[in-house]
Design goal:
globular; alpha/beta; Nucleotidyltransferase, domain 5; single chain
């Protein structure tokens, strides 16, 4: 394994990461080592760990889910605790030596969309490094910076290139590789969750006119992707997620976060205008608690959408939204968002995947499935 071969070889591997995304299955962070025929992805969430594997020749998904302890809802777990959980998952499911695609926590990676004058690739690389140096708290030599050109546009008499770049601390990448290695897994690729979502729904996006949003609402945060047909336009991570609902329920019912989480999972529903008149007092109380949290999430979404539209002359409007993430399974959430935003909101099974029995697709698997497709669709 690379770390066992010494830090210098790990440095060489990082320097050799590809700097551009492939035409199919784009990536920010490229390969670390040679891959096997099965492509697998690891999504470590606050609520549970999702492991999805695909055969490159036949993208039928096999899914393993492993619950996280309740204290994960209150903040990141200590590394020793996470290591024990991952090692148990690997041992229980015979995964030792499996090569995986994964991603770093959103707080550890800086991503930015920038528009720059068209220039030679070498000059563009230097311009991106300068942009990263302006926004990263660490010195540039301590970062791994990768970028992709999303497209070009003509503005006045100047041609601009639209670029998405990501920067992550080199020591954080080392640490994550070492963590997975101790648990018996081999990290081959780091990707961005937003790119995974875009990759997963490319077929659906290709047939839709206008701008479509993908909103992945997880326990700790929300990922927003905007696309026009197959072209990726904008990504952002919102600092709100299902934990907002947990806290809102805890406040409304006077219970701790663990009990509030159980109520959210088993006794929650956002009521529609049609359901409200006949709803019981208990159902109405839960509806009010949920709406308090969901309203904040909707406001964050609107702010990000307005930010994007303002930077693009506001000439286009959002025409639809695909809802994913564990919180996306909340009954009535899709209708709530549709009414709040005034657009169609759907939970869609991606056409590109089938699932081996007894697994079925649910919205919480979206990121892991999109990560696994990075290699299966090359």
């Amino acid at each position: 394994m690379l770390l066992e071969c010494g830090k210098s070889k790990m440095n060489n591997a990082i320097r050799n990461w590809q700097t551009n995304w492939a035409a199919k299955g784009k990536k920010i962070f490229g390969p670390l080592i040679r891959r096997q025929n099965i492509t697998a992805a690891l999504d470590i969430g606050a609520g549970e760990i999702k492991f999805v594997s695909l055969d490159r020749d036949d993208p039928i998904a096999t899914v393993i889910r492993y619950p996280m302890p309740e204290e994960a809802l209150e903040g990141p777990l200590e590394e020793a605790v996470l290591t024990e959980i991952l090692a148990q998952l690997v041992s229980d499911n015979g995964l030792t030596g499996t090569e995986v695609i994964s991603f770093l926590d959103r707080d550890l990676v800086i991503t930015r969309h920038v528009k720059l004058p068209k220039m030679r690739p070498s000059d563009l690389q230097q311009a991106i490094l300068a942009e990263a140096a302006n926004v990263a708290p660490q010195p540039l030599e301590e970062l791994v910076v990768r970028h992709t050109v999303l497209g070009t546009e003509q503005r006045d008499h100047e041609q601009l290139v639209e670029v998405l770049f990501a920067a992550a601390p080199r020591d954080v990448i080392y640490s994550y590789y070492a963590l997975l290695s101790r648990c018996g897994l081999v990290l081959t690729v780091l990707d961005l969750p937003a790119i995974a979502l875009w990759r997963l729904y490319r077929e659906e996006l290709a047939v839709v006119g206008g701008i479509t949003a993908i909103l992945d609402v997880g326990a700790a945060g929300t990922i927003l992707v905007l696309a026009r047909e197959e072209r990726l336009l904008f990504t952002r991570t919102l600092p709100v997620g299902g934990s907002l609902l947990v806290r809102s329920i805890a406040d409304a019912y006077g219970v701790n976060l663990a009990e509030a989480s159980r109520l959210l999972e088993h006794n929650s529903r956002v009521l529609s205008d049609r359901e409200l008149p006949a709803a019981s007092p208990a159902a109405r109380q839960m509806d009010i608690a949920l709406r308090n949290g969901l309203s904040e999430l909707a406001r964050e979404f609107r702010r990000s959408l307005e930010f994007y539209l303002a930077g693009n002359n506001g000439e286009e409007q959002l025409t639809g939204l695909i809802l994913t993430g564990g919180t996306g399974k909340l009954p009535g959430f899709d209708l709530f968002l549709s009414e709040a935003l005034g657009i169609p909101v759907q939970i869609i099974k991606p056409a590109v995947l089938e699932f081996s029995e007894p697994a079925v697709f649910d919205p919480s698997l979206a990121v892991a499935c999109g990560l696994a497709l990075r290699e299966a669709r090359r």
